[in-house]
Design goal:
Structural class: alpha+beta
Number of helices: 7
Number of domains: 2
CATH class of the largest domain: Alpha Beta
CATH superfamily of the largest domain: Gcn5-related N-acetyltransferase (GNAT)
CATH topology of the largest domain: Aminopeptidase
Strand content: 15-25%
Number of strands: 10
Helix content: 25-40%
Length: 257
């Protein structure tokens, strides 16, 4: 485990399943003001405790680390990975450090731990591998840390906000196009259509499917598919939009992906 001289009472330890989801929740929400995190963002959101519990439910304790100061959680990092269609395995490390503990080496120690663990995983898995990390435009500290350690921005996503809702009018679909909500049986075609949409974009790697994605998509359709719309032309998917409703402190916002 990492050590940081000059910071007494600091402890680095493996993630404890079933216990540390609350710690991660408190750390992420403790970073909201400093990082200007938009609770309605589909990229850098403020997840609920339940969402965090689901995200880390199956994580190997060796692939996540928690930092405590006098037994209080102050930072964490975790690693996920997937193999893309090109054969490249991307190892994505994600984490947060509470604002009052930044600039003291905690983030750098977590970065070093993550890269060391990823090297171990890559050696076990074999094949071509790459480090990956995310930081939004408002996460200045995380962005600078990554840039200082040789990371480069290779792919960006933009979010747009539409506030005027009383002038929305449905447009007629193009000729021979049928727009309807999906059902779970559409999941396979929806997944394949998404793969096809990104197949020629070299900056967006798509994972090699093991069937779990389609299964999860079926479950998502059962939960929120009534908000989604699929455009069909001759029984083929021409376009699709996945919508959801975010609720933050009683205020609801509709989202589209």
């Amino acid at each position: 485990m990492p050590t940081i001289p000059g910071l007494p009472g600091l402890t680095f330890r493996p993630y404890q399943s079933g216990i540390d989801a609350k710690a991660i929740y408190s750390i992420i929400h403790g970073c909201q003001n400093a990082d200007n995190i938009d609770p309605y963002s589909t990229l850098e959101s403020l997840p609920s405790l339940q969402e965090i519990e689901e995200a880390v439910a199956d994580i190997d304790p060796h692939d996540a680390i928690l930092v405590e100061k006098n037994s209080q959680p102050i930072a964490y990092n975790r690693i996920i990975w997937w193999t893309e269609a090109s054969g490249l395995t991307l190892y994505l490390h994600m984490g947060h450090v509470l604002p009052e503990f930044r600039g003291q080496g905690v983030g750098s120690a977590l970065l070093d731990w993550s890269e060391a663990r990823i090297r171990e995983l890559a050696a076990e898995h074999g094949g071509e591998a790459m480090f990956g990390a995310n930081a939004s435009s408002t996460e200045n500290d995380a962005t600078q840390l990554l840039l200082d350690n040789g990371y480069q921005a290779v792919f960006s996503l933009a979010q747009m906000e539409y506030l005027i809702l009383n002038n929305l009018h449905a447009l007629p679909p193009p000729e021979k196009t049928e727009i309807r909500t999906p059902n779970p049986n559409d999941a396979e075609k929806m997944w394949q259509a998404m793969l096809s949409a990104y197949s020629e974009n070299l900056l967006v790697g798509m994972p090699v499917s093991d069937g779990s994605e389609v299964h999860e998509l079926r479950e998502d359709i059962e939960k929120t598919g009534h908000l989604w719309r699929i455009a069909w032309v001759d029984n083929e998917i021409a376009a699709q939009i996945w919508c959801s409703i975010a609720d933050y402190k009683g205020s609801k916002t509709g989202m589209m992906n």
